[in-house]
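Narrative of activities, Objective 1.

The group set out to show that a structural description can be obtained from nothing but a protein's sequence at a throughput compatible with the screening campaign. Below is one input-output pair from the validation batch, recorded exactly as produced.
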Amino acid sequence: DGVVVSEKMGSNKLDVDVTESEAETKEKGGEQESIRESDSNILDVSSDSPREKHISIQRQLADLEKLADLNEAEKKPCPLCPEEKFKACYNHKLHRHLQNLHWKISVEFEGYRMCICHLPCRLVKPNVIGDQTFSKMGAHYHCIICSATITRRTDMIGHINRHVNKGETESRFITAPAPKSSHEVLRESDADVQVHPNYSTPQKTDSYFNPKMKLNRQLIFCALAVLCEERKPIECLDAFGATGIMGLQWAKHLRSSVKVTINDCNENSVMMIRENCHLNKMKVIPKTKEDDTDETIEDGEENIGTIEVTKMDANVIMHLRSFDFIHLDPFGTSVNYLDAAFRNVRNLGIVSLTSTDISSLYAKAQHVALRHYGCNIVRTEYYKELAARIVIAAVARAAARCNKGIEVLLAVALEHFVLVVVRVLRGPSPADDSAKKIKYLIHCQWCEERIFQGGSNMVEENPYQQLPCDCHGSMPGKTAVVLGPLWSGALFNTGFLRRMLLETVQYGLEETQPLLKTLICEAECTTLKQFSIHVSADENKQEKCRWYIPCCCISKLTGCIAILCGPGKRKSNEAIRNATKRPKFENSAEHPAFYYNIHRHSIKGMNMPKLNKFLSYLSEAGYRVSRTHFDPMGVRTNAPLAQFKTILVKYSNPTYTGGQAEGTVHLTEDLQVGDHVQAAVDDKAGDGEILEDNKSGVTATITKDCSAPCAAD
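Output recorded for this entry:
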């Protein structure tokens, strides 16, 4: 006897005799096939009516044994296997079979076990051997949520996880209760967003939301708030909306100053963004008149602002429309969207981008950095600043291809991301100026000394002469590598950062204020003790003239200075030429490139001074010095590495062991880091110099000759 084989779910009635029938399926070619099977225990159930769960889905092993009637002392077949696969047997053997084969490799979900099923519920493609056709029945699992049948256990687990991520956590059987909402509501900066389960794992959800990027979102908001003071209204774009949290914060706090557009290419993310807009009482601007009734909020509720939600590819929407502010935050690198971003961005607008491909930027996957950014890098002590300069170099090249230059306003590299905010300067002259700041870096692998190559295109006989160190002469082989191309200009705009700090005070973003204070000190290359947010009116006006650009003025912006003029006034060519010479005076005050890690250059057997005290020592020696956000133990200074080590040794105390009797320690071997650094601590020259330890009263003699022993006069 045969029975129709259906791909739908069947009932668990086992004692029903099914007569032979034939199922005719009509295909596009008009061919008809008949599939005959025998000894089937599955009944076809209409999809319109509620159905019971499959017999392979049980809560306990005892429920599965009840289907086989193990209490009776006679041979019983397996309820989940056909007779040709597993013949009828007695209770003890059938119990081991159900436990070891079906129950042991089941998939658990909300108290139910989806056991593996060998019944002819799922047909496998028939194998033709000679004149005979074999249609093998494959083992599979029945999904408790939908009517799908999955062959592999790992695929079944992934199938269930996808249901959970989409919020489909209730089964479609008659025993299932009413579905409940699985969305979780999170609140950040007075904006509420609904997220799916596993919202922090991008591989498992469509609407990705990372709470660790809160600092990143606040920095971008402050940059947009500063731009809103220059001109209103601002058309801003969040090209990768995900949950829409960033665009919601823009529209909720800046109100009528911004026209927010949130874009995403995923349909589920777009639906989630619209729901979050209604949750925050935002009116979604419809794209067509037909959507007007669906996209407005309920009557009686006051809408705070309006947001336009689009479903496009990020490159497409940036090619079609012009914006004043664009933020790019894709999953990974953002180099694929830079050309489209600079194509239609308005003059003096801002482009911000967040790169999360830190494995390549931080020199863990150097081949990926070469493929994405066309840059050769190695792991260095200043790898985070190196990553920021790599991204800025890619941004500058993309802007130059569109005849636009850039002014770097902000560059931040933390554990999870690299954030770069630049201002767009339209014209071939700013584009040429930005392109000239892309240079190669010579890096010594012995002492970590580094220097940018000169602007000349002539080939030098000995490139090692550009390095301040002498490692190539004292060490065998090649000691330096060429890294780049990199951005060699400034990473911060002091005036823009100060205004961002004022915006954090205005909107109560206290978590961002310490970082911005560090960035301002780093941009000015000063310590935090000299930092002050309160400035006089004249100084504030002068500070504004360096970056404030109203829409009605004709300005030429080079470095971080812009010309202010009143409405309706024009500057003569001579005045513009004179004003463009002002940034040359400030170029000398730019912060030094890169930084030194105090632990990397510490001396073995010596206790280093505290970092803040060491900064004061460098400052007393006449060097510019500041801390850096890239490294908590990093020191940004214009002092050469040799002088850096000299001052570090001068104010370090020797470390002694308990069994050490003598009070003199020779430290010259520890001072050799790539090159022989002469420890000239005092102005007097001699065979050795004595450092007195005030606490222990023990002296340490630093000799210049390693081979000569310490002998008495």
